[in-house]
Design a protein that fits this description.
heterodimer, A: 271 residues, mainly alpha, 12 helices, 1% strand, globular, B: 402 residues, alpha/beta, 6-stranded mixed β-sheet, 5-stranded mixed β-sheet, 9 helices, 17 strands
Chain lengths: 271, 402
Amino acid sequence: MEIYIQKNKSIIQRLKELWYFRELIYFFAWKDIKIKYKQAMLGALWIILQPVLLMLIFTLVGKAVNIQTGAIPYSVYVFAGIIFWNIFASGVQNIGNSFVSNANILKKIYFPKLIMPISSLMVVMFDFFISFIVFLILIIWEGVYLNWLKVFVFFWLIIFFITLITLGLGLFFASFNVRYRDVRYVIPFFIQLMFFASPIIYSPLHFEEAWKNVLYAMNPYVAVMELVHHTFFNMPLHLDYLWYGVVSAVLLFALGVITFFAMEKTFADVV
Amino acid sequence: MKPIIEVHHLTKRFRLGELGSYYHTLRDVLSLTSVKKSKHKHFVTALDNISFEVYPGETIGIIGRNGSGKTTLLKILSQITYPDEGFAILRGRIGALLEVGTGFHGELTGRENVFFNGALLGLTKKEIKAKFDEIVAFAGVEKFIDTPLKHYSSGMQLRLAFAVAAHLNPEILAIDEVLAVGDAEFQQKTLNKMNDVAQAGRTVLFVSHNMATISAFCKRTLILDKGKLVNFGPTEEMVRQYLKMLEVYVNQQALDDDPSLPFQVISVKAVDTDGAVRSEFAFSEPISFIIDVKIREQIPTGQIVVVFYNQYKHKVFSEVKDVGQFSPGVHKFKLQLPVKMLAPGIFSVGVESVAHLYGNFQIVDHAYQFTVIDDGTKFALSNLGSSGGYGDVILPCTWEKL
């Protein structure tokens, strides 16, 4: 085995290393999950409690401002929105801080740095799968009809889509966060903006047609919600708009990955 | 045989702003003032065109003052950071220990930490499982292995951390000063372990300030100074050359003049019988020291202590002088050593200012350095080596045949 150390490393070489260190992704995620629930009295119950409480409060708000979601109970509608949103929101947040919060490790030990964002995403996914089970129970309880084959196929499509934009935006923030610490304060604000710019607690039916193209292109999360609503609530899928979302998601992912590879080299020196 | 490590013209620069814990904020960047701009133009060369080769099974010491580039070199070889110019080829897996216990977390149990830390250092889950009992036994923490790490004493944490590190088996092991910690017994244990590693034919790079460990452990040594490779050769020679460099450096430094101290030593110089300042003396020559003491406030119990260290920083002996009766001002003292007492070797002088009931005011452990050269001791022809091999002092003992 020969290792060449020089100024630049090829993408192929980096991907090979990532494969070589793949076990470490699991170890990082395992460690984070353990620490997260170690001294928490309610432990993993928090994973369920958070979306349930949010659902209750938003149902109250929804009643007050009279949001229309057709035949779907508003509580189920909101719960679906929240658990998928949590992947994105917590994902971007955790990935965005993953290099900075592991600075001491990053400065002392070598491993492919992409491991930290990926394992951050895995931790978020772990929480998601638990709350997703609760969601399935809720949806069956409420008697919403589900096409299970469609759910199975679209579910993975949604997960893939969310992974794309979460990693993209997360890596973009994470890379700049290493150099400019105020990014840390930008992230929660930015996520909040996107929350209200996405049809999570309200219905996309409220959007005017003329606005849709712009919205889908500006905020790829709108497309995610469109897929979620179509999959679980059988709401109409607007393929003509969806494309804008897909393209902007791919661009966002590319932006994140390119930013990361361009800045990665100096991480250990400046973090 | 091909070298296991080849380093060719390695150069690494840091922007001045990148050193230390200075963070930029977006505002700094958006408001590109001229001050910031000029700051960015300043680079520090941490490594300057370094080339060397290491062969399999060698143990290599790396010595140099703080900021000479030792750690940067290890960081580049272990791929933590990238070089700006040049390249290196490693023919084997490298395990770098820049610190032990990296990634240890107080909330996790000893067992969990061993697994995570082991994985970080490049062990697979299987390997950790296979070595787990051995690691725990080496650290001697069997009883506490399922207790959260935050309940461990710092010594236990350290032992566990080193135990994981000691059970890595890369072809190249790079170690930075990790031995500077822990109790004497544990240090001995770690040294033995490192010896085993070297005996097993693996290559070791060892950065240390401790010349005794370097001498005992490394066959060849590399001297770095201000990012440049000064010399690379047999350890004994290199240690001697390095201590010489240090001598020139130390003896040019003035002691800090600290106005908050009631009294302090402001200068230490070794002089010969003519009063000329020297840093090299023959064994048979008289050696004296001129010590300047500044007294700002008269403290009746005030004393200055002069401590003599050997090249391994062990105390050889101390001298003390009462200065309580002197009025404020600078006073010069001459300290005369007994002739033919210090054995050939390298010594350094430390100074302290103390007062009974008041405590210590000033402690400088490296104020001056000098060398005693063998000009015909009774050991000159023995095979104990030319410097330091027969102890730090030669005393006028007598033999009598019975």
